[in-house]
Amino acid sequence: MSRLKDRIIKRIKSEGPITVAEFMTLCLLDPTDGYYPTRDPLGSDGDFITAPEISQMFGEVLGLWALQSWIDLGRPDKIHLVELGPGRGIMMSDMLRSAKLDQDFLSAVNIILIEASAALEAVQGKTLASASAPVSWIKDLSELPDGAAIIVANEFLDCLPIRQFIQNDPFAGRAGWHERMVVLEDDQLRFGKSPLPISDTLQAALPNGQADAKTDDLIEVCPANAQILDQLKARFKQFPGRALFIDYGPDMTEFGDSLQALKRHEKVGVFSDPGNTDLTARVDFDALRQIAKEIALDTTNIVTQSEFLSKIGIEVRAVALSRGNSDAKAKIARQLDRLMSADQMGTLFKAISFQSDGLPVPLGFTRIE
Ligand code: SAH
What we know:
Elements: H1 3-15, E1 18-19, H2 20-29, H3 51-54, H4 56-72, E2 79-84, H5 90-99, H6 103-108, E3 109-114, H7 118-127, E4 135-138, E5 149-154, E6 163-167, E7 177-185, E8 188-197, H8 200-205, E9 218-221, H9 223-238, E10 241-248, E11 260-263, E12 266-268, E13 278-280, H10 285-294, E14 298-299, E15 303-304, H11 305-311, H12 314-322, H13 326-340, E16 349-355
Parallel strand pairs: 2-3, 2-5, 3-4, 5-10
Antiparallel strand pairs: 1-7, 6-7, 6-9, 7-8, 10-16, 11-12, 11-13, 14-16, 15-16
Helix pairs in contact: 4-5, 12-13
């Protein structure tokens, strides 16, 4: 049994059941036994692979997106280029390659990385050791220094802890919703349900889609989403900026348990090896958009990854990279297919952007909602 599993069992024994969010936080971020702080999980030898790890083209076209964003922001002399959850730092390093297209942009850039894992921070430091812009790390968006900012995040929101709620009785309204908990049964970790209905505050945090729930439907809420959007709203009131999130998830709230554990690219049981498996949940893009609207934060429409990457020029980049190199051509075509096709990442993954008031529609999107 993993040390973390043992610790979680002891804790539930002495303090009672924990929420799914508490379980996820322990598994992913516990400083001594958590998943991210103790390893580099990415790549083909790791547990999962992400778009920047599949192809350099992903970060390169995001670099163009950032460049255009800097132009939209009025070409400020200084711009914080911020990345949330930068993994191995590959996306940022690819972004900087295309940032070189405009020396004024490059010399304005100050890179700030927000990373919870000391192990990955060290890898990012190596990847970006010869970056053509200064690099520093902070722990949280609230530590971001003053000034204009462009914020990017790929597969960051999906590892933020979610809470899950089950509808027992749709006719009972709020009283019908009960929180799904991690409990002990015969000394084994299992899912259970709180006997108490949820509070008014929690019910207010459920996405609008909750109204259609039938008996036993499960709905997920990621409290950190609202927190991040609040931080962006507060920041963009003071300083101009734009943020981009790419992740997997639906554009309309869906019912059902999406918590999944991955080990060596295979799905495994959520309780099989806590702390040693990656844990993620789909991102509810519709909920993000709703929250943004509620707090009057400018939000774009939600677009699929394939639409977004296509609009920002990934096919053009693929042609340029393949030209005159027939060996690379087949490889590049395969990479493009993984990022773009509907049966790979193309439609499951979505993009959304938030920004300060008065800016044009960001590249890759069609409207501000
Ligand atoms: N963006 C990268 C890595 C995705 S994995 C890529 O696309 O390849 C998720 C990343 O988020 C890791 O770097 C992980 O350590 C980091 N992370 C997870 N939870 C975090 C938190 N609460 N705060 C900051 N970083 C976090």
